[in-house]
Amino acid sequence: MPNRWKPNVTVAALIEHEGRFLLVEEDTADGLKLNNPAGHLDPGESPEQACAREVLEETAHDFVPQALVGVYLNRFTRTRTGDDITYLRFAFAGQLGTHHAWRTLDEGIVRTVWMTPDEIRACADRHRSPLLLRCLEDYLAGRRFPLELVRTDPSVLAAAG
């Protein structure tokens, strides 16, 4: 099957502190957009490991996933190229840890920002993906699933070595 369809696997973090959520503002082909700290699953890592890595790279904070909020499928067409891309997102809630102020944020990340749910809802036109709001609403509805729901076979982790 040379033309097998393969969605892009991504992870995202929902990080709440005192009623506000940590987002990143990133420079995209469509201008400055808001998103959860998020990114692609790399070879040799579990979704939980990928999420912790992406949060560190995009916010300079340690992050420990504690629950799965949901698994989401989203289709997107790139504005510049017209590429039709499907994303499979694992969204995690968890605990924000130490801030490493010396770290440089990932390329394209302009800054981090804390926003209330109402502020996030009010700027939907600035969201990088509709999954930002969908994941937020699921989190606010109390959706939390045990991390054990996502199983990573040891053969995946061995691929990193």
Describe the protein in words.
By secondary structure, the protein is α+β, with helices and mostly antiparallel strands. The protein has a single domain (8-148), classed as Nucleoside Triphosphate Pyrophosphohydrolase (Alpha-Beta Complex). The chain is built from four helices and eight strands. It has helices spanning 47-59, 117-122, 131-140, 154-158, and strands at residues 8-14, 16-17, 20-28, 31-35, 38-40, 61-77, 84-99, 109-115. The strands form two sheets. Strands 5-1-7-6 form a four-stranded mixed beta sheet. Strands 2, 3, 4 and 8 form a four-stranded antiparallel beta sheet that branches. The chain is globular and about 40 Å long. The mean pLDDT is 93.
For this entry, give a set of tags.
4 helices; 4-stranded antiparallel β-sheet; 4-stranded mixed β-sheet; alpha+beta; Nucleoside Triphosphate Pyrophosphohydrolase; 161 residues; 21% helix
Topology (SSEs and partners):
Elements: E1 8-14, E2 16-17, E3 20-28, E4 31-35, E5 38-40, H1 47-59, E6 61-77, E7 84-99, E8 109-115, H2 117-122, H3 131-140, H4 154-158
Parallel strand pairs: 1-7
Antiparallel strand pairs: 1-5, 2-3, 3-4, 3-8, 6-7
Protein name: Phosphatase NudJ
Cofactor: Mg(2+)
Keywords: Hydrolase, Magnesium
